[in-house]
Amino acid sequence: MPEPRRRKTIRLGTVLVVLFVVALVMGPGPGLYLINPNPSDPTALRTFLGMPIVYAWGLLWFIVLVGIIIIAYFKVWVKDEPEP
Q: N or C: the chain end with fewer CB closer than 10 Å?
């Protein structure tokens, strides 16, 4: 692999790793406190597209994780086997 392309691949890989860690933390972790409605507030939004907001939040971050894996598969990971 040429050197400039290798640098771009390493940079993209680093960005994807950072985004993956952020998504892992925000999905089930402190991100829930951002969207979890107050149980005592009767006007709080509790659903998003008919789904409970907490489930929608988890689904959003799952989709982000899958997107990162797909981008890494096509752009970062390379075959080590030589072509015949």
A: C
- Strand stretches in 1-84, DSSP E: 47-48, 51-52
Average confidence (pLDDT) over 71-78: 89
- Neighbour tally for 74: CB within 10 Å: 8
Give the Cα separation of 31 and 73 in Å (integer).
27
Taking the C-alpha atoms of residue 36 and residue 26, their distance in angstroms, rounded to an integer, is: 13
Q: Where are the beta strands (DSSP E) in 3-73?
A: 47-48, 51-52
Q: In this structure, what token pair is assigned to residue 31?
A: 């991100």
Token pair listed for 63: 């989709």
